[in-house]
Amino acid sequence: MQKTVLSERPDWRAKAEEVGFTFADMHGEPYWDESSAYGFSLREIEHDIEDPATELHAMCREVAADAIKDEETLNQLGIPEEFRDLVAESWRASDPEVYGRFDLAYDGSGPAKLLEYNADTPTSLYESAAFQWEWLEDQIAAGVLAEGDDQFNGIHEALVERFRHLFQPGQDLHFTAIGGAPEDYATVESMGWAAREAGLGAHYTDLEKIAVSDEGQFLDDQDRVIGVLFKLYPWEDLFRDDYARHLKTANCLLLEPAWKALLSNKGLLPLLWRKFEGHPNLLPAFFESDVAEAMAGTGAARDPALFERSRDMLIHGHVSKPLFSREGASIAIVEDGQVTDTSPDDTYAEHPRILQAYCPLPVFDGFRPVIGAWMVGEACVGMGVREDRGRITQDLSRFKPHYIRD
User: Fold this and answer.
1) What are the residue ranges of helices labelled H in 276-326?
2) By CB atoms within 10 Å of each CB, which of 52, 351, 378, 392 scores lowest?
3) Distances in whole angstroms, Cα of residue 354 to Cα of each of 41, 48, 321, 327
4) Residue 260: closest CA among 136, 6, 79
5) Strand order in the sheet with 172-177
């Protein structure tokens, strides 16, 4: 793994504008940044990222199967009681999943460490699946990259095959996101693009324009009944939305499915550690409520033996994360009992927390990269890289293209 300074394509901004990549710059800062790129060997990709991510996903499914049977776990995950049957039924019915993204800390030497799983509404899909692939092809054609260079990027093709596998030709799918959010729309349109290529109908409606019929079904902005809906709207918000009371009558398959609520919050991390303690791709993690007294030396942990085996690492450095958080909001790094770094955004501060052992990100030219390993179905099919100057990756981090060279 290395970071290499490269010539930018002279026309990349025009190309971005042409395809609607309107958020290549945000808040006066570059978001897409091709002034340099991250290079990997094929072994690093296959051995350290692709295979571990696929294995982590299988482990997450095992955790989900356990969680739906245990009320205490559902409490810790913040699943509202009135929707627990919906979540369990979704799992038992094998409601299909489409995609997700593991965020990994990786420095080229391995093993990659799981920071979190964006199992429900991950964004940066368009940049990962499409725009960085166009960058690779252009840079090879320009001689900036070598003819044999490649990229870990089968995301779009995998999405096409996933939709083709799940639905009959010509079936109508609906896609929704909050209106006026270009990054969200790019993710949803990437999904719609794949669905159309799979021979399906793909209709977009702003989230706030979805209506409810007299029979309790969801309607799009042209009053068509929605039978399948990909929603870029997290389950933890939907559960608390007025629309939630119609979920049982809507007769609508939602993507991602309701059981993904078990995996799309950071309570997944302590559940993984509890079940797979010592796995090379995991960091020690605990629900704060289970270890707060033990960390303070005033009482015992819920699982004393499990905690004691990780105590020194947690005391030396851990990250405090709310169950629900986006873009690094309300996250704090604590080292030797002192808060040494916090996110300026405290949007999610009221939520219960988990503690995860701190794994410093590598530093390349003053930036700290995070690997986003993309899952489609149950396989890892590609990746994107985001980097930040700070130790907490936030909403102004930069997306960096990558290439493979052996």
Assistant:
1) 288-296, 304-316
2) 378
3) 34, 26, 5, 16
4) 79
5) 201-206, 172-177, 228-231, 253-255
Nearest one of 301, 338, 383, 397 to 49, comparing CA atoms: 383
Element (H, E) at 398: strand 398-400
Q: Nearest to residue 158, comparing CAs of 311, 382, 389?
A: 382
CA distances from 386 to 51, 358, 399 (A): 20, 19, 4
Cα–Cα dist 266/115, whole Å: 9
Nearest to 378 by CA among 10, 138, 56, 114: 56
- Looking at residues 257-279, what average pLDDT do you find? 97
Amino acid identity at 384 = G
Residue-averaged pLDDT of the chain:
95
pLDDT higher than threshold 80 for residue 345: no
Domain boundaries, the chain: 2-264+365-404, 284-357
Enter the DSSP assignment of 35: S
Pair 229, 174: CB distance under 8 Å: yes
Nearest partner of 116 among 56, 32, 205, 35, judged by Cα: 56
